[in-house]
């Protein structure tokens, strides 16, 4: 693992903060477990993403961020129309983005709030991270192209490989990534029923990396929530990355320099 590598997608999960309308119930995932995983695979930095089962109660994640200001950053699901002190507290603790999760109940911010979230992100210097299905992108593109904040797309657009490389959804994703968006080449097990190393996903990842090698990033997706198939290991996720980016220089951009720039880590 190169020095300075960033895991850009993981969750700490608190059972005490479960929301009633969640799509699934996951085991807890603790600060210590996550940091141990980072150490075991050699990741220098990590980014915690507010998980849908905890809704808009960002407190468990913020407490972890506060204890590791040099190593961790966060992407929150904030309440809207709050006093400035609410958002300042998040930024002070290491929040650098807003998550819009439209795939699972409990996400807290749906697409009806898109323009409102864009204004909030612009005001606080944050990006907006989308967990959505790329099949929905063609209809969304007019709105997304008007956004003023930085856009990040989770898990290669969460597009099943059965949909195909030539599908309107994947082409819209490619266009958005070429133009402006960042994309996480992560979550391969969500896109196929294959076992690791998920070879069906490789052409999709390669196409995205070729579209914008300076805006592709990688995440472990630990602890792999909402997965009812074979549970992958982080090592297997990293082995898939080698197939996406066999060139070490490209791979190091995805692991190090690209995410360091997006999340504000020092090399």
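Sequence proposed for the structure above (267 residues):
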């Amino acid at each position: 693992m190169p020095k300075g590598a960033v895991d850009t997608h993981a969750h700490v999960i608190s059972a005490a903060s479960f929301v009633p309308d969640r799509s699934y119930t996951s085991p807890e995932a603790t600060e210590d477990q996550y940091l141990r995983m980072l150490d075991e695979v050699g990741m220098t930095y990590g980014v915690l993403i507010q998980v849908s089962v905890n809704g808009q109660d960002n407190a468990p994640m913020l407490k972890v961020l506060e204890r590791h200001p040099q190593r961790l950053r966060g992407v929150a699901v904030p309440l809207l129309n709050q006093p400035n002190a609410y958002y300042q507290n998040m930024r002070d603790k290491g929040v650098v983005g807003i998550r819009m999760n439209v795939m699972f109940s409990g996400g807290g911010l749906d697409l009806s709030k898109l323009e409102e979230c864009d204004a909030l992100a612009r005001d606080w210097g944050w990006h907006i991270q989308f967990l959505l299905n790329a099949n929905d992108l063609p209809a969304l593109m007019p709105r997304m192209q008007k956004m003023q904040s930085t856009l990040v797309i989770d898990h290669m657009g969460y597009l099943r490989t059965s949909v195909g490389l030539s599908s309107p959804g994947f082409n819209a994703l490619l266009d958005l990534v070429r133009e402006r968006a960042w994309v996480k080449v992560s979550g391969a097990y969500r896109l196929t029923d294959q076992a690791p190393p998920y070879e069906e996903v490789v052409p999709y990842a390669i196409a995205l990396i070729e579209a914008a090698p300076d805006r592709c990033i990688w995440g472990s997706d630990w602890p792999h929530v909402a997965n009812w198939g074979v549970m992958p290991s982080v090592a297997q996720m990293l082995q898939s990355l080698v197939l996406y980016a066999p060139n070490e220089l490209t791979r190091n951009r995805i692991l190090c320099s690209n995410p360091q720039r997006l999340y504000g880590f020092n090399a």
